[in-house]
Amino acid sequence: MTESVRRFTTGNARVRNENTKDTEQTDTEREQTPSCPECGSESLVADSEHGETVCDDCGLVVEEDEIDHGPEWRAFNSSEKDQKSRVGAPTTNMMHDKGLSTNIGWQNKDAYGRSLSSRQREKMQRLRTWNERFRTRDSKERNLKQALGEIDRMASALGLPDNVRETASVIYRRALDDDLLPGRSIEGVATSALYAAARMADTPRSLDEITSVSRVEKDEIARTYRYVVRELKLEIKPADPEQYVPRFASDLGLSDESERRARQLLKNAKEQGVHSGKSPVGLAAAAVYAASLLTNEKVTQNEVSEVANISEVTIRNRYHELLEAEEQVQLP
User: Fold this and answer.
1) Annotation: CATH topology of 139-232
2) Which protein family is named in the record (predicted)?
């Protein structure tokens, strides 16, 4: 009898402990989720400029005189901000060491702007040399440094944004880690990574444009691109002709109305299935040319050909196909 009472008492104690834990967890969750004491709303907005936390619903100032975790200095332009900032740049995949190593400046001046003596200049030059050697200690780092430099050079020549360069650098790093480079040139894999990154970011460049700034041939770029995409299992959608229209229209100095008309021509062509099996660059160039004629902003086929880097024959052929698709859509 005594043993059964002890078991019952122990069971009740466990239930009470579990209930107590649940109550403590609920109270902790309530404490972690701040709410307005006036209306009970949880939509609180932090005003860092005034050091206050304000309820977005009723306007009650919930907290004031908060600690400012920002810098103690003020800057009114970018150069002043760079001068006063005491932290380095964020890490980036666009540098072989991700920007974590030390850079020794080339100016032979001290912290106060005074010129160094000849002995100190020789010392700093030796330090720069050894620093450069330590930054690229093995073949993999030297490989990365060369490839990322190529990606940055080509992206600058093509006017691609930083997010494309970052993505291309990540793709190249993955190819290097998966040992895809043996038997292929560094420049070829770097160019393929940039071509893939541009398409993934919806800012595509044609293969001819990529080839014009690359150090390798077009066939090698296409072959390496297919290999990298297959091995790394990259998900890349087919290029959309509409993605080329804004750049072509901007280079030709066309209005927004022409750009909008070109997009409409391409949409009608897709409905009629004209775009299947056709080069997206050729379709985009023909749409821009047709739209300029329809909006009385006449440009020549030669001008469009130079901007899109395709032949005038291709523009004429696609131009007639687009107009035929337009007529089919307008038929009752």
Assistant:
1) Cyclin A; domain 1 (1.10.472)
2) Belongs to the TFIIB family.
